[in-house]
Amino acid sequence: MKTWWAGLAPRERAILAAGLAVLVVLMLWLLVWEPIAKSRAELRAEVATLSAELGWMEQVADRVRRKASQGSDAASAAAGGSVLTLVEVAANASGIKANIERVQPEGQGARLWFDQVGFDRLIAWLGQLEQRHGLKISQLAVDARGEAGMVSARVLVEPR
To answer: What transmembrane ranges does the database entry give (predicted)?
Structure first.
């Protein structure tokens, strides 16, 4: 190799040395600098995305805390008040109290019998008991009556 190098003209040696220097710089650029720059750009993009998600989560966190406190307020109201009282107040507000045939305490909850009550009103009232008052419907039996939309029902309501 030394003899080959020595056999080259000075101008050829300069061209080869310059080409080798350009090749070394190009290899450093492609194998070292470019991957580092690409990784850095990807990390910056990821940081921007994560920052946006954090901002969104901080905005939503207040709403979630409020909903959680409302849910715990409803649960504490159910725990603090009697299930029978909550059921009676909610039935009176929904206009189906007159359709309650019988109410019987059962454990911590109450069992109710309805006769000739509108199905839609009954289901809306049961939804209110669960959502607003923190109660759960453990058992529900519904039988169709003669008129369209009218049912008789047996319901077991308990605290959550």
So the answer is: 14-33
